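User: What would this chain look like folded?
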Amino acid sequence: MSRPTHPEARGRALTPKSDGNPEGKGLSRVQSDWYASEPRGVVAKPQRQVLAEFFTSMLVLSANFRYQPVAGDPNYLYWIDGQWILSLVSPAEWASDRYSAFAGTCVLQLDRTWTITPSDILAEDNAVSRAVAGFYDAFAEMMDTDLTLEEILPFYVAKLPYYQRLNANALSRSIRESVKLGEQSSTRCRDWRLKLPQLGRLLPASV
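Assistant: Here's the prediction, encoded as structure tokens.
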């Protein structure tokens, strides 16, 4: 996707919150995963931090992956053949050409937000840095609305694969609680957007 968003477009970002199990997973499995993904240690945060964590988390969750990430463990984000890929395999363990697709090391936090340590190649003009810049532009556009932050959080996006959908819901619960604790629940996204850091501050190695 040339301008990746998570969800893929504004309409998906605004999908109404819902319960459901479209992939037919067993109820006990879903309940177990749901409780295991419960955000822990959520606190009130400054608006810039909320936005930074929202952006980096959405970037990670836009990636293709087929496993449940473990909090505290490193994951590796790549831009390969026009799509984001999250992997447990580091660039050093792959062929050397994979380093040119490496965006950064991602870690899931206990509160279910994601942090990214960016790759050095983001300081250069290349396909990866342009993909990150495109994602940033799409994220900023998504924030250009009078809806509140809670109303655009991806609580339930039916088209997402299971693990992405599970983690997007956990992220949404975390941000909702953090915003509530910070007494920012009624703030419009357009006002949040004014606090959005520049890309180079969100990912310091970015151009």
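DSSP finds eight helices and four strands in the chain. If you want, I can go into more detail on any region.
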